[in-house]
Known about the structure:
With 730 residues, this protein is mainly alpha-helical. It folds into three domains: 3-43 and 71-199, no CATH class; 299-607, no CATH class; 618-726. It has helices at 3-30, 32-35, 53-61, 73-98, 111-128, 138-148, 152-172, 181-199, 213-231, 243-256, 275-287, 291-316, 319-329, 333-339, 347-365, 368-381, 391-405, 409-437, 439-449, 454-463, 467-480, 500-514, 523-537, 552-573, 578-604, 618-631, 654-659, 696-703, and strands spanning 638-643, 663-667, 684-689, 708-713, 719-726. Strands 2-1-3-5-4 form a five-stranded mixed sheet, sandwiched between helices. α27 links the parallel β1 (638-643) and β2 (663-667). The protein is globular and about 95 Å long. 46% of the residues are buried. Residues 17-68 have low confidence and may be disordered.
Amino acid sequence: MNDSTLLTATALILGIAASALLIYGLYMKNHPRAGKSAPVKSVSTPQALAVDPAALEKIQDAPAPQPKAEPNPELERRRLSAAMVGIGFLIDFLSLYLRPDLPITEYWAYIPFLAIGILLVVGGIFLASQLGQRVFFESAIDWMAVKLDVRPAQCVCLLTGILTAGLATVAAGTSARMISPVVAVGSWITGIALTILGGWHFAPSAGGSRLPRSAWVWTLLLTLFAFLVRAVVIGQIPVVLSGDEGSTGLDALLILTGKVNNPFGIFGWHPFPALYFSIESLGISIFGRTIEALRYPSALAGALTVGGLYLVARAMYGHRYGLAAAVFLSALHLDMQFSRLGLMNIWDGLWYLATLGTLWYGWKSGRRAYWIAAGLACGIGQYFYATTRTLFAAVPLWLAIAAVVDRTGWRRNLKNLLPALAALLAVLLPLAWFAYTHPDQYLGDVKANSIFGSWLASNVREQALPAWRILLKQLGLGFGAFFNVNLSFWYRPDAPILRALPAAFFLFGLAILCLRLRDPRTWVPLLWLAAYGMIASLSTSAPAAQRLPGVSPACALVVGIGVVELASILAGLLSTRKWLVGVAAILLVGYMAADDLRFYFFEYTPESQFQGRHDFVGIGGAVSADIVRLLKDEPGQWEVVFFPNQVMGYRSDPALRYLLPNVNGMDILKPWGASENPAIPEGNLFFVFMPGREDDLPRVTADYPGGQTHVVHAPNGSVLYSYYRYPPGL
């Protein structure tokens, strides 16, 4: 069964179900007792009271709201008719637009969507002709509207939103180039918009629910500060463009050149969806093929996370907690490093924060908009780094725990669950279909870095320990990364996520949270930390730093809780010096933030050079950076002829290919003169000899006499690499 067959079959089943609904409705029309239904009920309900105690008092003191008038049945039918006809025409238009682009083997894939669109149009026209009386399919729609607390027309939007997202999946396909880009992107955006519209609560909310202006001022100031410290000299810190960043740039160039235009699948060097590389392509289109073009989006994501943390922590605990957490996160060294790299890892903290933050607020307030926002954030997050997939475990666990510790919560929120799931499904459907049809590509990175399988078997043999002992050791490494185990692999600062003083407040804040397990707020950071602790523990190179940027906001939140709670305790003991305690708490948070900035910029960065204490560059990065320095401003086209060793070759370092558009390259794997080697083109030649391949240098100079030979040394005096420029004088 090919890619479109199952989707089209699904649409066909929906069409059959709709036809069955029509037939059943006709039966009810001919049997009055069976077709009798209750009059249309008002679906507008007062919103739940705001969480803020001050706002709660205002609402309680306000005069009782006037009873709402029953909706006009004829007006509701007009809305329902207009929704059915309008959406039906839209689906038919998109289906017919898709038809010429479908491959011959799937030419029929548009037909079920076209049929459903026609069915909607016919049903809407029929309803419009019967405005004075109920028609046969209204009972089912009204029942659903009452259950979801929406208008009948919104039910049509909700259902057809998912259907339209399914049409986007067919139009996108699972190849690097979409079958019909206009229909795929248009249907996806339309489907998301329809599910939002279908689940939205249009009833006026209770007063006092809006954030004060000061909250938005603080959010803006914190976001701007965080962006500035992340964006300053971003092209020079980190000190080189890493190979992974270079590959990100190459994947983004595939988007810009049109070789890849499908954002819903995995097609480049990185085993992640192409939507992120579309964002990076915007940076390249503005700033060119530069380091800054790849890193500015990450700086923006990190800054938005800081502002978002203030809003979430303020809503959960109050202004002081939000300010302490956000100020510390704005300077946290792990967050700083990945906010300055052209990689997607830093985005996961933003999507985790948006999902769990809006979900908690939606649960406490009962407001539909926050549930929908949680569904959207969770869905969009799946198009970024793989660690956001743990949201599919964290969210159900949090809902289950919230249902136990806050038993009245489901009574005010049960109707919000389906609209949130519909929004999630509309966003996720194209990617979910790709993952279903290409599971090896979707799960490839997870499988490659999992400790289960060959890694665990190998360590059982090497360490002569049972598997459970090794797993316990891994858990100690993974969870210890928060406060006492140094980060490893991709970022090695010789420190855990939280250095000494923040780690102390983290442990104090964690203890405070563990005393409040019956508070649903407590489980937001706890589950967040648990998810990333398990990620770090159950993957190789534990604790690998590149898998942990998404947990930085949770760490900062717990540190903020520790600082403010300790200050509150001291203020209670020193009642006459409360102001002094408050000033001390502010200075303490400021000191911890400043100390992490000092550590990152003035201790880690200078020592992240090749052969430095915190070597981030490595020999490959050092060679790559030097070649870029030599060739980036050279006129004309150059050919880099690389004699690689086991450490590095031309094809193994994507940073070279990204930063040098005036360069082509090749690897010479066999000794010079071997017939297996590729032919050397004429023109400007730059021969690179890695250590161990110097024997080829005299042979090259003999065949290309008159060039210039240079030997580049590492800081410790060893040979980094040698190069030969031909012709001379260029």
